[in-house]
Amino acid sequence: MLELALLVLACGAATDLWRWLGVPLSGRVPADSEVFAWIGCVAYAMVASLIARMVILPSGVLTATLLSERLLACAVGLVAYYAGRRNLLLGILAGFVVIVVSGWLRGGSP
Amino acid sequence: MTSYPSRRAAFWSGARVSAGAPSAVLAAGYLGFAALAKAGQFPLWAALISVTTVWSLPGQLIMVEMSLAGAAPLIIVVAVSLTAMRFLPMTVSFLPLVREPHRPAWQLYFAAHALVMTNWAPCVRRVPELPVELRMPYFLGFAITNWVACIAATLVGYFLVDSFPPLVNRGLVLISSLYFVLVLSGEYSNRLALASILCGAVAGPLLYTVTPQWSILIAGLGGGTVAYFLFRRHHA
Question: Which of B18, B114, B117, B198 has its CB surrounded by the most CB atoms within 10 Å?
């Protein structure tokens, strides 16, 4: 438990490190430099790697769903998102409904 | 509509704007985060502490997923920190806008801590229209409202998983993935971002089959760097 608390606090410090560096650096370095472009690339790639992994090779309760169901949920979510003029809540709701209904159709209890 | 009579009025105006779509959308992401945490038996207290200290949905997801995958704490902290580097250009561009002379420095550090993409994007546009003394209150009203909504969403998500059957829980756990699939899809017109997303998305699952605990770190650093050199140099 102490280990977990320390981990969470360390993750908080590791995050605020970058936010707080902005206090002394603000006004002194341009916000559109090449280093920042690279930082943005790493951030995008890292989040995308996690999300792709969570959809394609899930752990936990999502292992009870099929890959085709998860991909369909993402696809329907995307369609609903753009059909609703980038309504994120609508997209999430659509994907949620797909994963629940497809599981129910395969014979799971709701 | 361009100004407010007092700092208090500016604070509440920021809070009102935030209480609509911005906080609802972010809270939906946190609902999914909480469902994922609960389903993986990541304790509620730790999830709540992470909302107030880490306060970054990608960082928190990485932390929960990697710790459930059994990654070493140091690797987790490094991965979380690498995704948080993106905050530096955000604070560098935002803090000069809200800096007031003769105000204690801790207020700037607090503002930096409260900053996330959801409040940065609208506030970096709105705040320059205000007199300088109203900017910080407007931002804090916006950001604190985000926070309250996300803490509430975390509690709700955690308890929803307990009160719904497994089939519904799968949907709740999928929300955090759906959230980022939708958010990331919005970058389709930004070549560099799109290339980074595709590199990461291909590398992530492949590397996970080889080395689960290092996969995010290598896929992020490697995929992002490859995308940067392929597309920044030639298409800038």
Answer: B18
